[in-house]
Specification:
The complex is a heterodimer of chains A (293) and B (251).
Chain A: H1 4-15, H2 18-31, H3 36-42, H4 46-65, H5 72-77, H6 80-85, H7 90-124, H8 129-156, H9 160-175, H10 177-189, H11 202-208, H12 212-224, H13 233-240, H14 251-254, H15 267-288
Chain B: E1 8-17, E2 20-30, E3 35-39, H1 46-53, E4 61-66, H2 75-81, E5 82-85, H3 97-108, H4 114-120, H5 136-147, E6 154-158, H6 166-182, E7 185-189, H7 193-199, E8 202-207, E9 210-215, H8 217-223, H9 232-246
Parallel strand pairs in B: 3-7, 3-8, 5-6, 6-7
Antiparallel strand pairs in B: 1-2, 1-4, 8-9
Helix pairs in contact in B: 3-4, 4-5
The chains are: A mainly alpha (293), B alpha/beta (251).
């Protein structure tokens, strides 16, 4: 592919930056969290849970910080004039940028996952291979989503400060997503939402899992077999224990019989894919129209 | 690629930013094998025109053709055969000169050895140095090496003498000659009028987004009241002063 050299160059940029390895380190340090609840929930597969815990918190911010300047930085320094002078279409430039950054961030994420797996193997012994591989694939997809969002922000912003504001706005939205969704739900339906005893509303639960991190957790919880929820695996397990009250939205706790079909955890794969395709398509639309400088 | 078509052909090209016409109904033809000097005062529209040639910018109206291609539709074919030294560019500070040249060589699928090209522009001693420590003259030389990758049919050099010391100026001039002798068309804009005079076959003077004069230096002298021994600078000032007096569109 014509854009392979550009992608390799982007990949090198990510992997020679301290940021990629700080990200990997933080995923490992934050993820390795042996708890009784975690052990009770999944036993030796707690190793896979470590990956979920570390990735859920640090991959989004790490991947965004490693990608949101990918184009805007070229605009502000003027190196975009060489980039645009390459024998590539603007779409190929975007593919090279996104692909290269994804491989860089993905490499750091895989490295962190393998380190956690090694630690888990030493500490707790063997774990189930298929859920681990599923989590690894979900982690790579999640990395792809965050890089796609980062490159999109970098493409549409005209100034670095605007791009940084966009990234910050994304974080605010995801951090407060549960509160935003429940407030909107209450405003529309008039039904108050108590997370200790959530209403059995399909649309409410669907909205909660539309963020990339929510979809990632739903998918990895499914692989771990703990329950259908956007929360971390040990919280889901605790919520489903009899006689325990936890403020978490778990499908099995709210619905009799597993809830409507569109809350099936496998559909979170579609959510993540949409989060890759839509930002890339919007970035392409912005970058290929009109002036590139 | 049709080799009979001009290297550059602009037909009534206009580029507007809001109400401002950066390029105004510009007609321009640069034949293959020419060394064409593109002159004009600051803000005349030179870099905008170059941006249009490379599809960095898109015309509001008119037709642009480069080496017989539409630079927007056939951007890969055009950029494959064009070498560019842009104006006011930036480099990747943490990468070496070799990496800069290699990225272009690999993307163009050209077999050039970055070391040879860097040697040619006088950066043989700095091949593996990170460009963050380069002087402006070294950056300019590196950009020229990047433009030379793949023996382009058309070299577009925007202010190639900018920030370059006298040795560098001579090297740039020699390279322009060598490339032209190889068969490349060279299109360059410059404020260093003495160098334009030394290198170019033909000269176009842009002002207010319009081509106000074009021809050999003798042709341009004849268009003005300049004496036969007038320098390029005298002719340039007279041509562009006249337009200022006319009250033309400015940017």
């Amino acid at each position: 592919m014509r854009w392979s050299p550009l992608a390799r160059s982007e990949y090198r940029t990510v992997l020679t930056s301290k940021g990629a390895w700080i990200l990997a380190l933080l995923v490992v340090l934050w993820g390795f969290r042996p708890t009784y609840a975690g052990w009770d929930a999944v036993g030796r597969n707690i190793t896979i849970g470590y990956v979920q815990i570390g990735v859920d918190l640090f991959l989004p911010i790490g991947a965004l910080l490693l990608s949101y300047q990918s184009l805007i930085n070229e605009r502000t320094t003027g190196s975009i004039k060489f980039l645009l002078g390459l024998p590539l279409t603007r779409t190929q430039i975007l593919l090279g940028k996104t692909g290269g950054r994804f491989v860089g961030v993905g490499t750091a994420a895989v490295a962190a996952t393998l380190v956690l797996a090694a630690i888990g193997l030493i500490e707790h012994g063997t774990f189930a291979l298929l859920p681990f591989l599923g989590t690894l694939v979900a982690t790579l997809l999640f990395a792809g989503v965050m890089v796609a969002i980062g490159v999109f922000v970098s493409t549409v912003a005209r100034r670095t400060v605007t791009a940084a504001t966009g990234v910050f706005a994304y974080f605010l939205a995801t951090v407060f997503w549960s509160r935003i969704v429940t407030s909107l739900y209450t405003a529309v339906t008039g039904v108050p939402v108590d997370p200790y005893d959530a209403p059995a509303s399909g649309p409410l639960f669907l909205a909660l899992r539309l963020t990339p991190d929510g979809a990632y957790n739903v998918l990895t919880n499914w692989f771990l077999g703990v329950g259908n929820s956007t929360e971390l695996f040990h919280i889901v397990y605790t919520k489903l224990e009899p006689g325990v009250s936890v403020n978490a939205f778990v499908v099995e706790a709210a619905f009799d019989g597993g809830g409507p079909w569109y809350l099936h955890p496998a559909l979170s794969l579609v959510v993540l894919l949409v989060w890759v395709v839509v930002p890339v398509a919007l970035a392409r639309r912005a970058f290929t129209r009109g002036d590139a400088l | 690629m049709n080799s009979a078509e001009p290297a550059i052909e602009l037909e009534t090209v206009t580029k507007k930013y809001g109400d401002v016409r950066a390029v105004d109904s510009l007609d321009l033809v640069v034949e293959r094998g020419e060394t064409y000097g593109f002159l004009g005062p600051n803000g005349a529209g030179k870099s905008t025109t170059i941006g249009l040639l490379l599809d960095y910018l898109r015309p509001t109206s008119g037709t642009v053709r480069v080496l017989g291609h539409d630079p927007r539709r056939d951007v890969v074919e055009v950029h494959d055969r064009v070498g560019v030294l842009p104006d006011r560019f930036g480099l990747y500070e943490d990468r070496s000169a070799r990496q800069h040249v290699a990225l272009i060589a690999e993307t163009k699928r050209a077999g050039d050895d970055p070391e040879n090209l860097l040697e040619r522009v006088g950066l043989g001693d700095a091949v593996d140095d990170e460009v963050g420590g380069f002087s402006s003259g070294m950056e300019q030389r590196l950009a020229l090496a990047m433009a030379l990758v793949g023996d382009p049919d058309l070299l577009i050099l925007d202010e190639p003498f900018s920030g370059v010391d006298p040795h560098g100026v001579r090297r740039v001039r020699e390279i322009v000659r060598e490339e032209n002798e190889r068969g490349a068309t060279v299109f360059f804009s410059s404020h260093v009028l003495g160098q334009v005079e030394l290198v170019c076959d033909r000269i176009g003077v842009l002002h207010g987004g319009q081509l106000v004069a074009e021809g050999t230096l003798d042709d341009l002298r004849a268009r003005t009241a300049s004496p036969n021994d007038a320098t390029m600078e005298d002719v340039f000032v007279e041509l562009t002063d006249a337009r200022v007096d006319d009250g033309g569109d400015r940017r």
